[in-house]
Amino acid sequence: MINNKAYVINSPLLIQSALRSKDLSYDPFIQDSSEKLFALDPSTMKILKTPGTLEKPALMDEFNREMHGSMLGEHLDKMTRVALLDIAASVNEIGEAFEAKSLYRWVRSVMTIATTDSLLGSHNPIKADPSLVDLLWDYEGGVTPLLMGIPKYWAPKGYEGRAAVQAALIKYYEAKHDLEPDVAEMTKMRAKVFRKYGITDAETARLEIGFLHVAVSNAIPTCFWLLSFVASSPALTASIRDELMAITTINTLDTGKREAVIDNSKFLSDCPLFVSAYRETIRQISSLVIFRRIMQDTTISDGNSSYLLKGGKDVAIAVGVSHMNPANWGSNVAQFDAERFLHEKEMEKERVPTKAYFPFSGGKHLCPGMHFAFSEILGTSAPLVLGFDIEGTDGTTLKVPKIGRSTMAEAVTKPEGEGLEMGAKFTKRKGWEGVTWRFTLA
Ligand code: HEM
């Protein structure tokens, strides 16, 4: 994938400058990796690699132009509503008590269905056949071997997961389910652009496993780590519960039962500590490296010094390094400090924390799913933290598992070993017995 010698950038201001540069491109990496990741037909690869003309922009350019608007405003709200309906149903299914043998796998299955429902609508094949949840994650775990061209014999799971999910998506796209009204605008836009450029429905399906992959692979581990950090600290749990109470209304239903309604649009305005804990969680687990190819000689600058980057070479933008640099964050950089982002403004006077924080990348490829991820992750965590005591399976306070380092293909770290297997016990809090959950986006 990497062309030749790569420049490594890890200073915050240079990262900003690099992410803004029009001469650094991500397209060559997408083109190279698509063939390996999605097992595409040569005719599709030819379309993906065709340069644009004045009359007809290249497919990737058209995509980039349409991408961001299709996950904002009413399109974002539509996706969020669908995901939150699913999440509320899953939390209501817990009832009064529940033991997850693996907290991570439980969160993974709830959120994979919620996310794919919000993207694919009522004909979501992953919901129709939940065995595809694990198969999608087998593909996710196989991305690095697939990218490295390791044969199926040595790394079968990634190949098998890919084949199963792509087969289900082929039926979905060949039946044109993406054209139905309850499908996310982003999903519709992507398939529309692929068809416009002559890519078949089967090949669209093969490509779109990649979209499902980016939609689940970072948000779901983030939610797991956030829950672990919060549940591991009784004091933090108590403070976040106070904030959540302010955005929750308790109704008595006709049946006499009580319902808690969380206003999902109020996290930013009314739950500063919860939001800060979310941002700090991402800072801790994001070991992202962003790759770009230098299309022509160009310079980047930190305001004081300029650096020449030679065309044809690659750059590795080490965002994760910047997230863990004491020069940016202070001497407690390695600790989880839930309040860290509460003091962003004061800290900025001394250091550069906001400018050192790029978990969603930046510039043209700023993650279009970042607002959805925010609503979904805080939405999943909120009723669990507010309504339940979350403990280890032995009844002791949950411990945050060891955070490892991620692979080059991951933006955030996933739990491994003991962390992956860590169970959790959810017990309805005293006073919350019988309460069910719903969300609004008022
Ligand atoms: C905590 C959660 C998430 C994190 C940390 C994250 C991070 C990122 C990063 C770092 C990139 C850009 C990589 C680069 O510049 O090379 C990216 C791109 C992308 N993300 Fe996310 N993401 C998250 C959630 C999501 C979700 C939930 C969705 C969709 C529902 C999504 C959809 C995308 C897409 C489509 C791209 C490609 C954008 C492009 O090609 O310009 N992401 N994400």
Automatic annotation (TrEMBL):
One Pfam family from the record? p450
Question: Would the keyword Acyltransferase be found if you checked this record's keyword annotation?
Answer: no
Which residues take part in binding heme?
A: 367
Q: Which SUPFAM superfamilies match?
A: Cytochrome P450
Q: Which GO terms describe its molecular function?
A: heme binding; iron ion binding; methyltransferase activity; monooxygenase activity; oxidoreductase activity, acting on paired donors, with incorporation or reduction of molecular oxygen
Keywords, in A-Z order: Heme, Iron, Metal-binding, Methyltransferase, Monooxygenase, Oxidoreductase, Transferase
Some GO term, biological process aspect, for this entry: which one? methylation
Q: Domain of life, per the record?
A: Eukaryota
Cofactor needs: heme
Q: Which CDD domains match?
A: CYP7_CYP8-like (cd11040)
Key word Cytoplasm present in the record? no
Family, as annotated: Belongs to the cytochrome P450 family.
Identify this protein by name. Answer: Lanosterol 14-alpha demethylase
